[in-house]
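SAMPLE LOG
Freezer: B-3
Tube label: C17
Construct: single chain, 131 aa
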Amino acid sequence: MDTYTWYQTLEKPFFAPPAWIFGPVWSILYLIIFLSFGFVFWKVIQKKLPFSVALPFVLNLIFNFSFTPLQFGLQNLLLASLDILLLLGTIFWMMKAVCPYYRWVIYAQIPYLAWVSFATILQLTIMGMNI
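STRUCTURE (predicted):
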Protein backbone atom coordinates (compact mmCIF):
# COMPACT_ATOMS: atom_id res chain seq x y z
CA MET A 1 0.00 0.00 0.00
CA ASP A 2 1.47 3.37 -0.95
CA THR A 3 2.02 6.06 1.66
CA TYR A 4 -0.84 8.32 0.62
CA THR A 5 -3.35 5.47 0.59
CA TRP A 6 -2.10 4.16 3.94
CA TYR A 7 -2.32 7.56 5.64
CA GLN A 8 -5.82 8.12 4.23
CA THR A 9 -7.02 4.87 5.81
CA LEU A 10 -6.00 5.97 9.31
CA GLU A 11 -8.58 7.35 11.68
CA LYS A 12 -7.79 10.98 12.43
CA PRO A 13 -9.13 13.44 15.00
CA PHE A 14 -11.41 16.32 14.07
CA PHE A 15 -8.53 18.79 14.43
CA ALA A 16 -6.29 17.09 11.85
CA PRO A 17 -5.42 19.67 9.18
CA PRO A 18 -5.78 18.88 5.49
CA ALA A 19 -2.76 17.18 3.98
CA TRP A 20 -1.92 20.15 1.72
CA ILE A 21 -1.08 22.38 4.72
CA PHE A 22 2.01 20.37 5.72
CA GLY A 23 4.09 21.36 2.67
CA PRO A 24 3.80 25.14 3.08
CA VAL A 25 4.21 25.01 6.87
CA TRP A 26 7.34 22.87 6.67
CA SER A 27 8.77 25.03 3.88
CA ILE A 28 8.63 28.06 6.18
CA LEU A 29 9.91 26.09 9.17
CA TYR A 30 12.84 24.65 7.21
CA LEU A 31 13.87 28.17 6.21
CA ILE A 32 13.83 29.19 9.90
CA ILE A 33 15.71 26.01 10.82
CA PHE A 34 18.31 26.57 8.10
CA LEU A 35 19.02 30.13 9.20
CA SER A 36 18.99 29.66 12.97
CA PHE A 37 20.65 26.25 13.11
CA GLY A 38 23.20 27.36 10.53
CA PHE A 39 24.01 30.36 12.71
CA VAL A 40 24.53 28.14 15.76
CA PHE A 41 26.71 25.69 13.84
CA TRP A 42 28.73 28.57 12.38
CA LYS A 43 29.34 29.97 15.88
CA VAL A 44 30.51 26.53 17.03
CA ILE A 45 32.89 26.29 14.08
CA GLN A 46 34.22 29.75 14.97
CA LYS A 47 34.62 28.53 18.57
CA LYS A 48 32.28 31.26 19.82
CA LEU A 49 29.91 28.62 21.17
CA PRO A 50 30.76 25.30 22.82
CA PHE A 51 29.71 22.12 21.04
CA SER A 52 27.42 21.34 23.99
CA VAL A 53 25.15 24.15 22.74
CA ALA A 54 25.00 22.63 19.25
CA LEU A 55 24.38 19.06 20.43
CA PRO A 56 20.60 19.43 20.86
CA PHE A 57 20.45 21.10 17.43
CA VAL A 58 22.23 18.10 15.88
CA LEU A 59 19.93 15.64 17.63
CA ASN A 60 16.91 17.69 16.61
CA LEU A 61 17.88 17.39 12.95
CA ILE A 62 18.31 13.65 13.32
CA PHE A 63 14.87 13.26 14.92
CA ASN A 64 13.30 15.67 12.43
CA PHE A 65 14.58 13.79 9.40
CA SER A 66 13.77 10.40 10.96
CA PHE A 67 10.06 11.09 11.35
CA THR A 68 9.01 10.68 7.72
CA PRO A 69 10.80 7.35 7.17
CA LEU A 70 9.38 6.00 10.44
CA GLN A 71 5.85 7.26 9.89
CA PHE A 72 5.46 6.80 6.18
CA GLY A 73 8.27 4.45 5.15
CA LEU A 74 7.86 1.88 7.91
CA GLN A 75 4.26 2.97 8.57
CA ASN A 76 5.05 2.61 12.26
CA LEU A 77 2.91 4.92 14.38
CA LEU A 78 4.58 3.91 17.64
CA LEU A 79 8.16 4.62 16.49
CA ALA A 80 7.04 7.86 14.84
CA SER A 81 5.37 8.89 18.10
CA LEU A 82 8.51 8.19 20.08
CA ASP A 83 10.52 10.12 17.52
CA ILE A 84 8.26 13.18 17.64
CA LEU A 85 8.42 13.22 21.45
CA LEU A 86 12.23 13.23 21.20
CA LEU A 87 12.00 15.96 18.55
CA LEU A 88 9.85 18.10 20.84
CA GLY A 89 12.19 17.49 23.77
CA THR A 90 15.22 18.60 21.77
CA ILE A 91 13.50 21.86 20.84
CA PHE A 92 13.14 22.73 24.53
CA TRP A 93 16.71 21.57 25.17
CA MET A 94 18.19 23.63 22.33
CA MET A 95 16.26 26.73 23.40
CA LYS A 96 17.64 26.34 26.92
CA ALA A 97 21.18 25.65 25.67
CA VAL A 98 21.37 28.70 23.41
CA CYS A 99 19.55 31.07 25.79
CA PRO A 100 22.67 32.52 27.50
CA TYR A 101 24.27 33.27 24.14
CA TYR A 102 21.82 34.30 21.42
CA ARG A 103 18.25 34.99 22.50
CA TRP A 104 17.09 35.68 18.95
CA VAL A 105 17.65 32.00 18.16
CA ILE A 106 15.12 31.14 20.88
CA TYR A 107 12.55 33.53 19.40
CA ALA A 108 13.16 32.09 15.94
CA GLN A 109 12.24 28.64 17.27
CA ILE A 110 8.79 29.67 18.55
CA PRO A 111 6.96 28.79 15.29
CA TYR A 112 8.85 25.48 15.15
CA LEU A 113 7.99 24.75 18.78
CA ALA A 114 4.33 25.63 18.20
CA TRP A 115 4.02 23.43 15.10
CA VAL A 116 5.86 20.45 16.60
CA SER A 117 3.76 20.75 19.78
CA PHE A 118 0.62 20.58 17.66
CA ALA A 119 2.07 17.79 15.52
CA THR A 120 2.95 15.81 18.67
CA ILE A 121 -0.61 16.01 19.94
CA LEU A 122 -1.87 15.05 16.48
CA GLN A 123 0.57 12.13 16.17
CA LEU A 124 -0.21 10.76 19.62
CA THR A 125 -3.93 11.06 18.97
CA ILE A 126 -3.68 9.30 15.59
CA MET A 127 -1.61 6.55 17.19
CA GLY A 128 -4.16 6.14 19.97
CA MET A 129 -7.01 5.96 17.50
CA ASN A 130 -5.30 3.38 15.27
CA ILE A 131 -3.42 0.98 17.56
